[in-house]
Write a structure and sequence with these properties.
By secondary structure, this protein is mainly α. It has seven helices and no strands. The protein is elongated. It starts with a helix and ends with a helix.
Length: about 160
Amino acid sequence: MDAKIREFFDSVGSFFTGGDNVPWCDRDVIAGCEREVAESGSAEAKKESLMRLSWALVHSRFPDDVNRGIAMLEASLDSSASPLQTREKLYLLAVGFYRNADYSRSRQLLEQCLQIAPDWRQAQTLKKVVEDRIAKDGVIGIGIAATAVGLLVGGIAALATRKK
């Protein structure tokens, strides 16, 4: 019985904390990627280094890093040499917008990814996380609205009682 109760509270906690499996990246990794970009020799090596830096930035815990990664990816999206590169950039953009809590934009980008590669598990998994988050935010919003209505109705009833 204790295990069932623990499982219930863990699932509720996960619901409200928004637990996901999208990896995080720390500032040391970002700094290493920035050095790699600065030291890259050829144009091809620089492109690869910039992709790694973009990955690191959108996986950062810091909004400024995430926004920088999004800007880099958006600027390079039109210069993608192949559908695979486009898919990768769209996915990383989706991660960035997910990190910024712009879930509808993240979902749009993931749908574009899945048009290019319908069976791509990574995009499918993130899309499920995003859709769950959208649903959760809707449930929380409904709860807040219901509470506000309850307080308003209770306040009106209290005023009506005082006037009598």
